[in-house]
């Protein structure tokens, strides 16, 4: 891109959406990354960069153990990237008076530099006026190849009015040979160098690997795969390969600090053709070229650093690189790919910050949750998610991220993250329907918990007829090849990679063939237990359901009752009863050892070839148990309702993990409980009660497993016995109720842990409604008790200290005595924002919600200096035993910082409550695109996990963002965006008729002031220009429709003085238009809008309704 050299600001947003930082090396440090997208038919790399040196600090394939440039945490990257990252030296002058300059290392007087952050690329520029040199470095991930590579383009421009000869040395001072793990590099890098080898230098390529495996094992395997480096430069005669310089002593000589290239300073390396040491040392990957440049002339150097499964593949890669225009076309293509996916969230308004921020946030959202493809023939598409990965980067150095090095790549993710980040996907892909609801609902266990790690979908061709469908039409040779892959469980990405590598000739296009595979194959979600059971994971499923019903309001009953193919997840990790986790330690009573692995159950699950994690009948040995969504949700209700704490207020952290706030990790040991889950349980029970009220047959019912039925009966009786106390007609005995409910839950779990017996009982709708009414009364009472009468805020967390207990006579495996607790003393922790967020969801009037907002804004949860909302109030009066949050400095991480995900949840609830003025007031200082980038310290298009709050003593960094991008805040912002753009229910029922009725909540100044020609990429390879008039707001809806609002008066679409919809223009794909008057579009046109029949809809607003 062209940098606007007359731009005086240190940070600024360019007209094309790029974010520019001037003299970036002198600004606050930050870390970020390239998206890791190489297209559907490409192999991604992970690439992390910082605003020091030449940016890129580490990269590799798959995970940290397959680094090409060593992974280092952010703080070490800031220190090391200037010397161990990419380096460039430029020699000018004469032989008698040479001058060697290293761009980007240190800013010389009169030198300016810029960092340009784009969707798919990173660009650095430096202008050294005294030397007459301009240096530009661009990075991008090579797209749509059967190998992964990071491409680096270096351009040196002579800005003098006279010619000058330049010799350029460029590349990596250290490259990691394939075969060295992250642990080996950290603990024994010196010893590991003994295995290092570089091959192919004589062919002007370099292939780096260990000669053999480094493990101390009896069987030693030869390493075939390797990391490669190729450098070339375009010349008048064509593309010229440059000789790789792989011996670091050739470059640095005796300077082992890598500070100065003493070897380069002593001789010309562009013409070097001598011997190099290619083994027994960690190599480098550099190249040199010399050229005379006339005034304004450029020297361009391309280099690629990547991974190949075999050395034999390197020659073919080299030939590709030598094709004229190859890298230029690849750079255009990678930018086009990113524009295609991010244009699903196209937003056109007056405020460019908001538009570009929406695009970037959509990208970062699907990097966590995945992007849903529609694979298969039209009308038979199946959803398949790509591009997702667990959030891991330089600042999240603790996470073991993974990007699968295959076509249709995706990585692993945590249940809570993926579920939240897919919340709005139906608004961008109308063909998803209920796929995500089914995926996540089927991951809940009979005990109400769920696995942590989501690894994606697995497929299996169980029927011979299915195999014939997908193998028919292939040649005998291709059939034999593919049959070996499809005889075992597979992923579409692995199959696609195999097909491309083996050059198998398919009867249809690859996406359609994969769609056929997915249609005829059985599938399940591959998930693993991970690290524990959190108490909040289930609470996000209802959000997904509500999104679905915002588009399909007429399908509520069908969604919950019609589909009987839902399953329960089968786990080998059991939650212990109280008798096996309440212990006496030296510090007093604690809850520890809450989970155990059952080896026999694990053996049983591992023995299953297909659907290994689906609960079976006959106590785990029978058929897979299947039922509908309602039964899944009802089972969740029973488990959570029986898990209220001894005071009947919060949901117990009885499985060893806390809720959303991971940093309260000590609370489970303190018999902690959490009210956000109580509030979400109330919300879920209300939803189910409302759903049953809409069912036509009161005497109809639902079949549930016998074990679930007995659990329900016990809880129903207990609720009935508690009712008089809640009504003020009898004494309350919360501890007795807690003990009884817990016993019911423990008995139920013991029965269902192996699996269900297989028999079922029916519960009538009438009985279920009565049960839910009692549950609602109990939960509303719990929420009322959670409110602090002094502050008006809701308590979020409680600890419970046993004050009456006795040893049982038994001991835990580590010698701690088990105890039986007869009484607890409850302690409420200081306010947390989460409690207020969840309370907003269950308060029933707008007045209550406004009053709560006012109390929050006058409390310690509000940061007056920043105008933002803190995660929690002062914790200094709490014990360090509550968790690591207490150990953090105030304002840092999860101790009183501005935790963006939770703050955005709060802003979202303001919108949902209809508190529009309050939302817009808060948004001016709380939404990232409106922040001062000099304070924020990074691109205002990119989210951070948290901002340092004014509680912290480090005043100069108040408001600075830390931990880049892959935050749950992206999910919350897309929900905010949807409410602003089209309201909570774009489709609704008027009587029994479906209507399209958008209700945007847009302020008048969001509408454009001038007409715009906007380039939009509706298909993967082509874009087109659409006209957006003045006084308009436009966005892409359901993945296929451009919606344009016309507001000639540029007035708010909310509030007493708002403009109203008075007409629509629907444009078909053939260019025909339908003009309609009124505020809604009725059926059948409403259903056609939902199906994407109309590529463009114009909506007209006016003052009179």
TrEMBL record:
GO terms assigned for molecular function: catalytic activity
From what superkingdom does this record's organism come? Bacteria
Q: Which InterPro entries match?
A: 6-hairpin_glycosidase_sf, 6hp_glycosidase-like_sf, GH65_N
Q: Where is the signal peptide?
A: none
Its Gene Ontology biological processes?
carbohydrate metabolic process
What name does UniProt use for this protein? Cellobiose phosphorylase
Q: Which organism is it from?
A: Capillibacterium thermochitinicola
């Amino acid at each position: 891109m062209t940098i606007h050299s007359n731009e005086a600001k240190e940070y600024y947003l360019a007209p094309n959406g790029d974010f520019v930082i001037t003299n970036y090396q002198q600004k606050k440090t930050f870390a970020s990354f390239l998206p890791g997208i190489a297209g559907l038919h490409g192999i991604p790399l992970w690439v992390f960069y910082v605003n020091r040196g030449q940016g890129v600090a580490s990269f590799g394939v798959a995970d940290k153990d397959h680094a090409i440039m060593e992974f280092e945490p952010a703080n070490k990257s800031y220190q090391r990237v200037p010397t161990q990252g990419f380096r460039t030296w430029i020699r000018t002058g004469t032989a008698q008076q040479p001058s060697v300059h290293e761009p980007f290392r240190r800013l010389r007087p009169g030198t300016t530099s810029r960092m340009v952050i784009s969707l798919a690329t990173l660009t650095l520029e430096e202008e050294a006026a005294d030397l007459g040199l301009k240096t530009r470095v661009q990075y991008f991930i090579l797209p749509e190849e059967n190998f992964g590579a990071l491409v680096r383009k270096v351009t040196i421009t002579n800005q003098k009015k006279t010619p000058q000869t330049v010799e350029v040395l460029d590349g990596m001072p250290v490259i990691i040979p394939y075969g060295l793990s992250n642990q080996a590099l950290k603990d024994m890098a010196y010893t590991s160098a003994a295995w290092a080898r570089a091959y192919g230098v004589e062919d002007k390529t370099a292939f780096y690997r260990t000669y053999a495996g480094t493990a101390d094992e009896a069987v030693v395997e030869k390493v075939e795969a390797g990391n490669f480096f190729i450098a070339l430069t375009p010349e008048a005669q064509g593309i010229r390969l440059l000789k790789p310089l792989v011996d670091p002593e050739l470059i640095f000589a005796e300077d082992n600090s890598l500070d100065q290239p003493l070897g380069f300073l002593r001789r010309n390396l562009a013409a070097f053709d001598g011997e190099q040491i290619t083994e027994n040392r960690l190599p480098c990957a550099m190249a040199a070229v010399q050229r005379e440049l006339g005034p304004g002339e450029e020297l361009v150097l391309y280099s690629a650093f990547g991974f190949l499964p075999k050395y034999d593949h390197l020659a073919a890669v080299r030939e590709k690189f030598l094709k004229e225009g190859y890298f230029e076309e690849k750079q255009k293509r990678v930018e086009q790919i990113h524009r295609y996916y991010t244009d699903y969230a196209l937003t056109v308004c007056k405020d460019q910050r908001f538009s570009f921020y929406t695009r970037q946030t959509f990208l970062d959202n699907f990097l966590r949750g995945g992007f849903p493809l529609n694979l298969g023939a039209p009308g038979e598409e199946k959803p398949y998610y790509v591009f997702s990965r667990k959030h891991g980067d330089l600042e999240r150095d603790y996470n073991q991220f993974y990007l699968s090095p295959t076509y249709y790549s995706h990585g692993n993710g945590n249940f809570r993250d993926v579920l939240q980040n897919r919340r709005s996907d139906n608004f961008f892909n109308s063909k998803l329907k209920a796929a995500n609801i089914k995926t996540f609902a089927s991951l809940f266990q009979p005990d109400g918990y769920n696995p942590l790690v989501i690894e994606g979908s697995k497929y299996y061709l169980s029927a011979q007829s299915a195999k014939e469908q997908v193998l028919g039409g292939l040649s005998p040779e291709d059939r034999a090849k593919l049959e070996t892959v499809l005889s075992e469980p597979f992923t579409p990405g692995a199959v696609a990679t195999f097909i491309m590598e083996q050059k198998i000739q398919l009867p249809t296009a690859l996406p359609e063939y994969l769609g056929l595979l997915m249609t005829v194959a059985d599938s399940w979600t591959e998930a693993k237990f991970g690290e524990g059971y959190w108490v909040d994971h289930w609470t996000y499923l209802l959000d997904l359901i509500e999104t679905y019903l915002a588009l399909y309001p007429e399908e509520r009953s069908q969604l919950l009752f019609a589909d009987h193919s839902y399953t329960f997840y089968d786990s080998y990790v059991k939650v212990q009863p109280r008798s096996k986790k309440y212990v006496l330690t030296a510090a007093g009573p604690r809850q520890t050892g809450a989970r155990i692995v059952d080896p026999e159950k694990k053996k049983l699950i591992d023995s299953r070839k297909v659907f290994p994690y689906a609960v079976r009948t006959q106590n785990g040995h029978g058929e897979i148990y299947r039922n509908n969504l309602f039964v899944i949700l009802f089972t969740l209700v029973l488990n959570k309702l029986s898990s209220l704490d001894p005071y009947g207020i919060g949901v117990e952290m009885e499985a060893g993990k806390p809720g959303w706030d991971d940093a309260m990790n000590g609370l489970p040991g303190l018999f902690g409980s959490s009210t956000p889950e109580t509030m979400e349980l109330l919300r879920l029970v209300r939803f189910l009660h409302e759903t049953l009220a809409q069912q036509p047959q009161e005497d109809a019912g639902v079949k549930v497993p016998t074990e679930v039925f007995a659990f329900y009966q016990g809880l129903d009786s207990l609720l009935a016995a508690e009712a008089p106390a809640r009504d003020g007609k009898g004494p309350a005995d919360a501890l007795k109720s807690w003990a009884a409910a817990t016993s019911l839950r423990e008995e139920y779990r013991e029965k269902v842990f192996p699996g269900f017996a297989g028999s079922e009982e029916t519960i009538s709708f009438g009985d279920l409604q009565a049960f839910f009414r009692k549950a609602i009364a109990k939960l509303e009472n719990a929420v009322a008790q959670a409110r602090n009468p002094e502050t008006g805020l809701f308590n979020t967390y409680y600890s419970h200290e046993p004050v009456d207990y006795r040893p049982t006579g038994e001991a835990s495996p580590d010698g701690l005595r088990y105890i039986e607790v007869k009484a607890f003393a409850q302690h409420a922790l200081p306010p947390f924002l989460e409690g207020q967020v969840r309370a907003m969801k269950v308060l029933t009037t707008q007045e209550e919600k406004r009053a709560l907002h006012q109390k929050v804004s006058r409390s310690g949860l509000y940061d007056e200096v920043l105008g933002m909302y803190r995660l929690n109030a002062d914790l200094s009066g709490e014990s360090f035993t509550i968790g690591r949050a207490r150990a953090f400095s105030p304002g840092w991480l999860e101790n009183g910082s501005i935790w963006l995900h939770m703050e955005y949840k709060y802003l979202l609830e303001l919108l949902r409550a209809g508190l529009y003025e309050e939302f817009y007031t808060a948004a001016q200082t709380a939404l990232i695109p409106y922040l001062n980038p000099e304070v924020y310290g990074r691109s205002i298009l990119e989210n951070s996990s948290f901002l340092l709050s004014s509680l912290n003593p480090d005043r100069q960094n108040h408001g600075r963002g830390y931990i880049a991008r892959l935050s749950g805040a992206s999910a919350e912002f897309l929900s905010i965006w949807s409410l602003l753009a089209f309201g909570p229910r774009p489709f609704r029922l008027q009587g029994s008729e479906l209507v399209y009725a958008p209700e945007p909540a847009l302020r008048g100044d969001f509408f454009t002031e001038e007409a715009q020609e906007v380039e939009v990429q509706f298909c993967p390879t082509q874009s087109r220009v659409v006209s957006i008039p003045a006084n308009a707001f436009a966005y892409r809806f359901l993945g296929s429709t451009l919606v344009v609002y016309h507001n000639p008066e540029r007035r708010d679409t909310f509030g007493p003085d708002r403009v109203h919809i008075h007409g629509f223009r629907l444009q078909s794909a053939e260019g025909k238009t339908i003009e309609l008057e009124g505020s809604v579009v009725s059926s059948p046109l409403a259903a056609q809008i939902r199906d994407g029949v109309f590529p463009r809809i114009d909506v007209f607003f006016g003052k009179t309704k």
